[in-house]
Amino acid sequence: xxxxxxxxxxxxxxxxxxxxxxxxxxxxxxxxxxxxxxxxxxxxxxxxxxxxxxxxxxxxxxxxxxxxxxxxxxxxxxxxxxxxxxxxxxxxxxxxxxxxxxxxxxxxxxxxxxxxxxxxxxxxxxxxxxxxxxxxxxxxxxxxxxxxxxxxxxxxxxxxxxxxxxxxxxxxxxxxxxxxxxxxxxxxxxxxxxxxxxxxxxxx
Length: 204
Hints:
There is one protein chain. The chain is built from four helices and five strands; from the N terminus they run αααβαββββ. By secondary structure, it is an alpha+beta fold. The chain has one domain (32-177). It has a five-stranded antiparallel sheet, covered by helices on one side. A hairpin with a 6-residue loop joins strand 2 (138-142) and strand 3 (149-154). The chain starts with a helix and ends in a 27-residue tail after the last strand. The model is unreliable at 162-169 and 179-204 (pLDDT under 50).
């Protein structure tokens, strides 16, 4: 009986060499690769969430500016435009482009009567996502004597589709009340529900 107990104890005694065994190189590499894949997925989803949040802010602000423009029109009988009747441009780039006046040219007409503060895109002058050729900005154009306007922004997520139409399409979002023709953008975007023919925008 004593001999049997010794044999059993000997068999169940743990092997010290098995307890001190570490990971093999292959096991370490597999774990690292799994962590890497999970990390890249999480980072990608996080970046997409940021793009989506920024786009929601851009769309919300463009809608807010468009509502302010309509209130301005009700009070003044025209949309914000140059006093001499020429086309008016403004965008939110800082510093402004030489050919396009500063964003304040438009905002001075809207803030604080129609807007509580000057709206700026979340990454003003920066780039993200689908903005490969454009930068994060808001752009406004008014036709002669303020009969119509075009207001747009670029989006970080390209939603597909061609050209710019009223609402969301491709990597653009905008609002318009067209009375065309537009001095530029007309050859590459739509103005209202109908496609641009040549350089003239059709009336919405």
